[in-house]
Amino acid sequence: MTTLSDRRFVVLVGNYGSGKTELALNLALASVEKLTTTLVDLDIVNPYFRSGEKAEELRSAGIRVLMPTFAMSTVDIPALPAEIQSVFEQPSERVIFDVGGDDTGAAALGRYAPSFRRYREDTTVCLVINAMRPLTQTPEDVVDLAQRIAARGRMKIDVIINNTNLADQTDPEMLRMGREVAEEAARLLGVERVIDVAMPELGVADALPLKRHMAPEWMEDA
């Protein structure tokens, strides 16, 4: 089966609607079966469809959850608590960062760049794309987004994750089209690895299986 990373730190970045939060939840719930796991909700941009919404469920599963102060309240500007820095100091076998969309959200990631530099060989930075969503529909779009995120987050992209889907309307051809976009963007960026993720019922060989825990953004009013 395709695996994403066996490194201690897994950082998920991507645009709004890419599905990185869904992936973060899946990775955390799978990881905690074997490893002590922390999920850091580092999204200071989007107040909806964030991993912090599932904090109670995650904690019940044994996952440590950290998120911006006031992230799930009506306060407009969440603050990053000092406790987040502790993930670099305290033992945790797997730490997953769910980073806010685009380069604005990646600015929060950049705050921890000095700490990540100490553990760069044990960190995988993943750009999650959905080629059915705006701003990542072409390789050039993906390259532009990746470069902006890398500059603000001060971390190079290691993996591109193809999460191309349209919720219940997704078919294997849609994922294949997204794979082409991801592979060309990876070539242009010098990224060596592209991974597909998909719902198991699609029957896509070698895709990392993804279970739905949150409704996609475009189904919000369904």
Helical residue percent?
Answer: 25-40%
- Which stretches are poorly predicted, pLDDT < 50 over at least 5 residues? 71-77, 216-222
Proportion of beta-strand residues:
15-25%
Largest sheet: 8 strands, parallel
Overall pLDDT score: 87
Number of helices: 6
Structural class: alpha/beta
- Strand runs, count: 8
First-residue to last-residue Cα separation: 33 Å
Looking across the biggest beta sheet, what order are the strands in?
3-2-4-1-5-6-7-8
The sequence of SSEs as H and E is EHEHEEHHEHEHEE
Radius of gyration computed on alpha carbons: 16 Å
> Which overall shape is indicated by the principal axes computed on the Cα atoms?
globular
Task: Write the topology of this structure.
Layout: E1 9-14, H1 20-31, E2 37-42, H2 55-60, E3 64-66, E4 94-99, H3 102-110, H4 113-118, E5 123-129, H5 139-153, E6 159-162, H6 172-189, E7 193-198, E8 208-209
Description:
The protein has 222 residues and is an alpha/beta fold. Helix content is 30%, strand content 18%. The chain has 6 helices and 8 strands, in the order E-H-E-H-E-E-H-H-E-H-E-H-E-E. It has an 8-stranded parallel beta sheet, sandwiched between helices. The longest helix has 18 residues.
